[in-house]
Write a structure and sequence with these properties.
Layout: E1 22-26, H1 54-66, E2 71-75, H2 85-93, E3 100-105, H3 110-119, E4 124-128, H4 134-141, H5 146-159, E5 164-169, H6 179-188, E6 192-196, H7 215-225, E7 228-230, E8 241-245, E9 251-255, E10 268-271, E11 276-278, E12 287-288, H8 289-294, H9 299-311, H10 331-334
Parallel strand pairs: 1-2, 1-10, 2-3, 3-4, 4-5, 5-6, 6-9
Antiparallel strand pairs: 7-8, 8-9, 10-11, 11-12
Helix pairs in contact: 1-9, 2-3, 3-5
The structure holds S-adenosylmethionine (SAM) and iron/sulfur cluster.
């Protein structure tokens, strides 16, 4: 029976008894890259008036914490483009009950912002990078910014971020020939290199199932080149399957939402930049918390909407099933 209900002080459970304690906060849909797998070349940006203010984001986060959220990740679009992002990070980090605050970025602006972000209380960054070859990076992102990203990674290391996670999406006939080079970054440096499977979120109908390179295929290639061992983890909600070179300083992770969906351990809810709660990256359900906040809704009503979103969550995303409903939003508008 679908009857689970969260009450104050109790975990935020859905109807399949999954505990929800992880909030992804998208703070902008704008970006300084145009990655092909994420957005079309020409984007229509959200109206500024529709984007949540810092006060609204902070209020929502405080309420989310009051119903059970303990971890938050800031994302976008490119979150470092948001004016005064450092001050937002500082205020989010100061919320009592947020035990883990992280941020996902394309790295382009990290040289300037890594140190201020660290000083503001951020300790973990994920940096997205899909090619180490300038021409290919340019083609994939439609922008020529690879040197800035590589320098941004060094800036993050200089500032003290640890671990630094480097996220790469491998695609057939596009960049999978660089998988070993990426994995080797974790051998000599303490980076956590994570391979993400390609998902249908490009907003242009480019995605084809046959272009997905599975984590297992990449792991098999890596095993041919060196000795890797599995890293054990006690965290059941961890989505990455973790490995490392026996003599490696860092780790290699595999996030396999297409070939091995981790819906059974999903702990995430999302807040979009335009104020919608989403209960699944790959679903179309949205709950309009901006309207609630802007029409005088109180904190208990916001809490109820969060609970409702969690209660309505489907058991699985359906991308491997016939009849999968086309996604309305592309990745940059959901928040990755
Ligand atoms: N702009 C930041 C960045 O690129 O890291 C944060 C937002 S981005 C949408 C978050 C993550 O989503 C990135 O790691 C990116 O590689 C990933 N991503 C975007 N589109 C994807 C897709 N179609 N399949 C898999 N991952 C995707
Ligand atoms: Fe921008 Fe990140 Fe999307 Fe690339 S993946 S276009 S960097 S939001």
């Amino acid at each position: 029976m679908r009857s689970a209900e969260s009450l104050p002080g109790l975990p935020l459970l859905d109807t399949f008894a999954r505990k929800h304690d992880y909030l992804r906060i998208s703070i902008t849909d704008r970006c300084n890259l145009r990655c092909q797998y994420c957005m079309p070349e020409e984007m229509v940006w959200m109206e500024r008036a529709d984007i949540l203010s810092f006060e609204e984001i902070l209020r929502f986060t405080r309420v989310a914490v009051s119903v059970g959220v303990t971890k938050a990740r800031i994302t976008g679009g490119e979150p470092l483009l948001r004016k005064d992002v450092v001050s937002l990070v500082e205020r989010l980090a100061a919320i009592e009950g947020i035990e883990d605050l992280s941020l996902t970025t394309n790295g382009v602006l990290l040289r300037k912002l890594a140190e201020p972000l660290y000083k503001a209380g951020l300790r973990r960054v994920n940096i997205s990078l899909d090619s180490l070859r300038p021409d290919r990076y340019h083609e994939l992102t439609r922008r020529d910014q690879l040197p800035q990203v590589l320098d941004g990674i060094e800036a993050a290391a200089d500032a003290g971020f640890s671990p630094i996670k480097i996220n790469a999406v491998m695609m057939k006939d596009v960049n999978v020939d660089e998988a070993i080079e990426f994995a080797l970054l974790s051998r000599t440096r303490p980076f956590h290199v994570r391979f993400l499977e390609y998902m249908p979120l490009d907003g242009q109908e480019l995605w084809k199932h046959e272009d997905v390179v599975t984590g297992a295929q990449i792991l098999a290639r890596i095993r041919e080149t060196g000795d890797v061992v599995a890293v054990e983890s006690d965290d059941l909600s961890e989505v990455a399957r973790r490995w490392r070179f026996e003599d490696g300083e860092g780790e290699i992770g595999f996030i396999n939402p297409v070939s091995e969906p981790f819906c059974g351990a999903c702990s995430r809810i999302r807040l979009t930049a335009d104020g919608m709660i989403k209960n699944c990256l790959l679903g179309n359900d949205e709950f309009n918390v901006k309207r609630l906040m802007r029409t005088g809704g109180d904190d208990e009503e916001i809490a109820s909407l969060i609970r409702l979103a969690v209660q309505m969550k489907a058991e699985h995303h359906g991308i491997n099933r016939p009849g999968f409903e086309k996604l309305v939003r592309n990745m940059s508008r959901v928040g990755g």
